[in-house]
Amino acid sequence: MSGGPGPDAGPGLYHERQRLELCAVHALNNVLQERRFTQEAADEICKRLAPDARLNPHRSVLGTGNYDVNVIMAALQSLDFAAIWWDKRRPLEQLVLSRVHGFIVNVPSNVSLGFVSLPVRRKHWIAVRQVGGIYYNLDSKLKAPACVGGEGELRAFLQDFLSQGPCEVLLVVSRAVEESGGWLNPE
Fold it and tell me: Residue 151's pLDDT is what?
């Protein structure tokens, strides 16, 4: 895992790289632009979510991560943020981007062992965040953040994921924005 700017990162970008199955932890830290969560913190959230479970349903039984959306939502709530599911039936033009802190996107991802790609797809969490007026793809599987561009390019980027099949987009907003519904333009 690396924190801090990568070699191709924009100015001051924080970007954690993939380790084990900790993409949810990396996505949280990348969208927040600082290391706020660890595997241990995510495991504690799992225990709080299912205190009596012998096999915790919110993480991998192997102890390597693979956290579900409930862990992401609880982590964000602990910092006075909220995760809002984006309704795919709505046009992305209804997003009030100035009120959205960032995005955590769940996408299908190929599984590989070393250089060999397996015919298996698993879910992977990625972060997207605006820094300095530019949106970046902060996917932990990337060597460095990838520039998405401005608002129009962001909407096209998200639409591309949504149109490819099983994908979920979470809006990361402050609790006040969640309560007011200020992230959505009702037009």
Answer: 95
**CA pair distance 46, 59, nearest whole angstrom:** 7
Q: By percentage, how much of the chain surpasses pLDDT 70?
A: 79
Residue 112's CB is within 10 A of a number of other CB atoms, namely: 10
- Which amino acid, 60? S
Residue labelled with tokens 């660890």: 38
The pair of structure tokens assigned to 68 is 């579900």
Using CA atoms, how far apart are residues 42 and 54, in angstroms rounded to an integer?
A: 17
pLDDT of residue 26: 92
What are the tokens at 176? 């006040």
Residue 9 has pLDDT above 70, yes or no: no
Angstrom distance (rounded) from CA 91 to CA 95: 8
Torsion of CA 104, 159, 84, 27, to 10 degrees: 0
Read off the pTM. Answer: 0.83
Catalytic residues, by residue number, are: 23, 124
* Band (163; pLDDT cuts 50, 70, 90): confident
Asked if 164 and 153 count as a contact pair (C-beta separation under 8 A), the reply is: no
> Which stretches of 92-185 are DSSP H helices?
151-163, 175-180
